[in-house]
Amino acid sequence: MRQIIAILRGIDPTEAEAVAGALIDAGITRIEVPLNSPSPFASVEAMAKAHGDVAQIGAGTVLTPEDVIRVRDAGGRMIVSPNCDPEVIAATKASGLDSYPGVLTPTECFAALKAGATALKVFPAFRLGIDGLKAIRAVLPTETRLYMVGGVGPADFREWVSAGASGFGIGTSLYRPGDSAGDVAARAREMVAAHDAAFA
């Protein structure tokens, strides 16, 4: 499974299945629908029903334990947040889902790991930077997985990976509201090629 999480902020449920299919065909099999999108639980459900056997579908911008349950009930298997909330992490793990809380500082990283996070979403990654990632990576447990989100694109994948990044969350570089499945497919293929080159 490639270490890219596609962030479909603003997607409509009527587009969800086709756009998810385009991403999967291009080789991106982790997909999140931020909860500040239109009818996000309907989009999660549509994608999970159509593609849940070949992709990990989930939600982003998840801020409460109640929303974790709603994502689970819609068929989601991954919870991504912009912040580190131990209650959300606990609810995610109790529901059997993967937890990707947002962190930026060493304190947040260790708090998220202590709470049971599956992996860490470094957000906004551009504020941490390459040197910051190297510094944090030096003190975290070696098995910690770090996903860079915010201001990161395929042109600098290799540099981030060299500094210790485990993967990436990609939003507007892959999808903007109104984009067709074909638009998304073309960008996804470029993203996958850059990913594969960075991890080669």
Automatic annotation (TrEMBL):
PANTHER family: 2-DEHYDRO-3-DEOXY-6-PHOSPHOGALACTONATE ALDOLASE-RELATED (PTHR30246:SF1), 2-KETO-3-DEOXY-6-PHOSPHOGLUCONATE ALDOLASE (PTHR30246). InterPro entries: Aldlse_KDPG_KHG (IPR000887), Aldolase_TIM (IPR013785). Gene3D superfamilies: Aldolase class I. This is 2-dehydro-3-deoxy-6-phosphogalactonate aldolase. Keywords: Carbohydrate metabolism, Lyase. GO terms for molecular function: lyase activity. Pathway: Carbohydrate acid metabolism. Homotrimer. Belongs to the KHG/KDPG aldolase family. It comes from Palleronia caenipelagi. Pfam families: Aldolase (PF01081).
